């Protein structure tokens, strides 16, 4: 049965499900797919995705590159398995009587955390829908958060896509800002506050009629006395998305 399933899946995906027969012969000190992936993740976490190569990973484990290929046939397979490995995250328990909004907030925060803890994660292009076990576990958790809502299966999947996209966008934005600061940029340069005095003179009402009052208020660089209705920029955006989902639920016929 495993052989039949393996033939229907990309090789890296089949490896993630553990349905590929492992080499029976190999180096004296046997490797494992888990060891190889852990080594690659460690390199990427410390030095970035560009530092990951089959040769580099093999050397870090004390083996030849050719011996590595016997376990994981290509770098693309390795990258997929790296993504899958760091997607094995602790998913929060759903409290009794917890509102669906709070459950979906947790989902977005967990998904966003992966991009911050493993900055290279978002550098790997998306090649299709999630079909590896840890990714599907997260989808399953999000579906559980919507249990009982008046949504059909397609609508639920669209909600997950919407929230996952928001988590990805905000996670990568925060990641990039943190990268810039670690590279030596000042927090003020990242937020724009270091340049606000100069920009207030350059962004004139004549040239930027709508942006000018925003700059003058300090809102563009986060120096405004005007507070968001809730939390920070991330929380504000997430709450507006959840508002939209709630509005959609309330607008649906009760017998749907």
UniProtKB/TrEMBL annotation:
Residues 30-90 form the HTH tetR-type domain. The keyword Plastid does not apply. Keywords: DNA-binding, Transcription, Transcription regulation. Pfam families: TetR_C_1, TetR_N. Residues 53-72 bind DNA. This is TetR family transcriptional regulator. It comes from Cohnella kolymensis. The lineage of its organism: Bacteria, Bacillati, Bacillota, Bacilli, Bacillales.
């Amino acid at each position: 049965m495993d052989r039949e399933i393996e033939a229907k899946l990309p090789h890296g995906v089949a490896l993630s499900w553990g349905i590929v027969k492992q080499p029976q012969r190999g180096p004296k000190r046997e490797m494992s797919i888990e060891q190889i992936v852990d080594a690659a993740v460690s390199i990427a976490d410390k030095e970035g995705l560009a530092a990951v190569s089959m040769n580099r990973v093999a050397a870090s484990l004390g083996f030849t590159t050719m011996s590595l290929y016997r376990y994981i046939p290509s770098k693309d397979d390795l990258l997929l398995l790296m993504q899958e490995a760091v997607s094995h995250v602790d998913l929060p328990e759903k409290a009794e009587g917890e509102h669906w909004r709070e459950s979906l907030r947790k989902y977005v925060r967990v998904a966003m955390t992966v991009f911050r803890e493993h900055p290279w994660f978002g550098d790997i292009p998306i090649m299709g829908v999630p079909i590896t076990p840890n990714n599907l576990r997260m989808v399953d958790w999000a579906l559980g958060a919507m249990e009982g809502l008046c949504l059909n299966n397609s609508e639920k999947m669209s909600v997950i896509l919407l929230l996952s996209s928001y988590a990805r966008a905000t996670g990568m934005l925060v990641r990039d800002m943190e990268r810039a600061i670690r590279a030596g940029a000042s927090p003020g340069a990242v937020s724009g506050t270091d340049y606000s005095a100069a920009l207030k003179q350059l962004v004139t009402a004549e040239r930027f009629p709508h942006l000018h009052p925003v700059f003058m208020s300090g809102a563009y660089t986060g120096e405004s006395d005007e507070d968001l209705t809730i939390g920070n920029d991330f929380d504000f955006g997430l709450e507006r998305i959840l508002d939209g989902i709630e509005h959609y639920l309330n607008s649906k016929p009760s017998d749907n």
